[in-house]
Write a structure and sequence with these properties.
Elements (H helix, E strand, L loop, with lengths): L2 H11 L10 H21 L6 E7 H14 L19 E2 L4 E8 L7 E2 L3 H4 L7 E5 L2 E4 L3 E8 L19 H13 L3 H15 L17
Parallel strand pairs: 4-5
Antiparallel strand pairs: 1-7, 2-6, 3-7, 5-6
């Protein structure tokens, strides 16, 4: 959903279409604060709304780096980037990364975590991966990362989109208004938890059977 539509809805609810009470900057900051709260709450719930996947290909990344270095060879302030080797330099996780779900080869085989780079680079590291800081190390030139990823902050209110389903539109508008009118952290945390619980469908549990206190 478009960030600008959220901003306009907030202004309408606040009766501030003339931009007297709040600037665009005020609402954008409030929107990003709400997104941080919502990301944490959805992550704690393991919500599928934050499930994301990205494919990494070492040759493609290095080709892009080489092209970028060549294009900027005459730019004095440009610092050439080094090529990557997934098993040695690792590769940076996406900016939206919250937590890892799985890493798998392109044939579908899921890799297992190790705690040191030495283990990964050993002769038995083909089916392993290492997560260290914000980087992932694997002994393959291509892999798929499944992860919990939060909605990115809004930088350009006119052009950016919020990476959440439209079902969250009214929830975000409501929470942004709370931020604009209340700076209490506890109030905000409770409001986010309640609003998200009301918004997300409980699909995972809709078909579950309730345990009975007796046996037949």
């Amino acid at each position: 959903m478009k960030a600008i539509n959220i901003l306009r809805a907030v202004r309408q609810k606040e009766q501030d279409n003339d931009e007297v009470k709040y600037s665009d900057y005020d609402i954008t900051c409030a929107m990003n604060e709400v997104l941080r709260y919502v990301n944490v709450d959805l992550s704690n719930k393991g919500s599928e709304y934050l499930h994301k996947m990205v494919r990494y290909n070492q040759d493609e990344i290095n080709a892009a780096i080489a092209a970028d270095n060549e294009a900027n060879v005459d730019t004095p302030e440009y610092e050439p980037k080094e090529l990557v080797d997934f098993a040695v330099t690792g590769v940076k996780v996406p900016d939206s990364f919250i937590s890892i779900m799985y890493i798998q080869r392109t044939d579908g085989y899921r890799l297992h975590p190790v705690s040191t780079l030495l283990e990964l680079q050993s002769g038995y590291g083909e089916d392993k991966y290492l997560m260290a800081g914000s980087r992932i190390y694997v002994k393959h030139k291509e892999f798929i990362l499944g992860y919990m990823g939060g909605a990115a902050p809004v930088k350009n209110i006119e052009k950016d989109e919020v990476d959440l389903p439209d079902i969250f539109f009214d929830t975000l508008v409501k929470l942004i208004r709370i931020v604009l009118n209340n700076n209490d952290v506890d109030t905000m945390t409770q409001a986010v938890t309640g609003a998200v619980d009301e918004t997300i469908p409980r699909r995972r549990y809709s078909n579950s059977r309730q345990k009975m206190p007796f046996y037949l």
